[in-house]
Design goal:
Layout (H helix, E strand, L loop, with lengths): L3 E7 L7 H9 L9 E5 L10 H9 L5 E4 L9 H13 L3 E4 L5 E2 L3 H34 L12 H12 L4 H8 L3 H14 L1
Parallel strand pairs: 1-2, 1-3, 3-4
Antiparallel strand pairs: 4-5
Helix pairs in contact: 5-6, 6-7
Length: 195
Amino acid sequence: MARTFAYCRVSTGDQTTENQIAEIAAAGFAVEHRRIVCETVSGSMPALERPGFKRLVDRLDWDDVLIVTKLDRLGRNAIDVRATVEQLARDNVRVHCLALGGVDLTSAAGKMTMSVISAVAEFERDLLIERTQAGLRRAKTEGKKLGRPRAMTEAEESEALAMRSEGSSLAEAAAALNVSRSAIQRAERRSMSDR
């Protein structure tokens, strides 16, 4: 007999999954409390690497149904979402996404929807890359300095390098100049590349 599960995810501890649980109930899915998996984890982490989602997948069985409110609960990019849905489909688990009208993503219509979403996501990513590269080229031609500003002035970098050559540890040099150890390491790498 098919069981229904829900996966609710938020990115930070100050967010709550209550709205997602209420949305699933309002859509007419009666999910037992013990079959609702809530997790606080970044969407950038692939779904199949998330502790809560991995435990959920271990519980899912043939003909079970998994409900999510939006695709981004499963992953931030279309490739991850598609891989997750395909793995679940191999185990005959149906995945319903409320934001897409409750369509089963493992059905023929769901697969077509996923293909369109994947194509659109790839197109948007390519446009973003093109816009970013154009903006960087424009900034360079205008003489703007790109990248993160240095944590230390040239004089501070010289002082840090002198301290290090005299035997000071990274922590000691960083504390003396009130910067991070990685700032000292970057200064050392720049010094090495300038030689």
